[in-house]
Amino acid sequence: MLTLSAVSARYGSVPAISDVSISVGEGEAVGLLGANGAGKSTTLRAISGLIRATSGSITFLGADLAALPPHKIAELGIAHVPEGRQVFPELTVKENLEVGAYIPSAKAERNRTLELVFGIFPALAERRNQLAGTMSGGEQQMLAVGRGLMLKPRLLMLDEPSLGLAPVVTDATFAKIQEVHAMGTAILLVEQNVSRALGMVQRAYVLESGKVIIQGSSAELANNKQVQAAYLGM
Ligand SMILES: Nc1ncnc2c1ncn2[C@@H]1O[C@H](COP(=O)(O)OP(=O)(O)OP(=O)(O)O)[C@@H](O)[C@H]1O
Ligand SMILES: [Mg+2]
Questions:
Q1: If you measure from the C-alpha of residue 232 to the centroid of ligand 2, how many angstroms do you get, rounded to a whole number?
Q2: Which of 6, 31, 143, 218 might form a disulfide with 197, Cβ 3.0–4.6 angstroms?
Q3: Is the pTM of this model over 0.85?
Q4: How far apart are CA 191 and CA 179, in angstroms?
């Protein structure tokens, strides 16, 4: 459903990713792995239109994303849960979720989707009137994922959902992501926690210095000597 062909992007004169070719199939869960500065977040930003690719092509369900502004890309069915969660601290949980349904098609179904999200995340339902800024890191992460779901996306892109979370909270977050995936939403998961990511995706790509250096099924990557040495501490 999503195809990047030889995509390059830069910040000013600094190249961030070069010739990145990745794909995500309908309903698939795919990982994008790599160390700090490898270009993972930049790849997601290029997909959601927050940064423009300088070369290469990005298509989603047959549409060329190159010329589209971010809200049009969201309208096609791509939700981007950014690094660092970025919930609105002064808004309540419910208000944060409502903001997530900012495109017309999602707005029309907002109340129904809200109940769906509360069904997946009962902890958010209990805290619907709490200010987001007063919630724990794990709760804010759930809220950020929930806000992405308010778009009713076909593809949910998650940028390091486990960042800063205790292992038990990471477990809970991943279980919820898996639940969303099981409902038919395709997932593009950026993670530095490689062992956790490989436990939930079918395929993954490893980025290094802005380039894809390894790709394969989760089993292939888990057995790859280079991946084991660099990311799995083996
Ligand atoms: N706003 C920016 N301005 C200039 N350079 C940037 C900017 N954002 C990222 N970069 C550079 O682009 C490269 C890729 O960064 P990116 O944020 O995509 O990495 P990442 O894989 O997401 O890393 P991390 O795991 O630390 O989040 C890095 O060299 C980074 O310094
Ligand atoms: Mg990043």
A1: 19
A2: 31
A3: yes
A4: 18
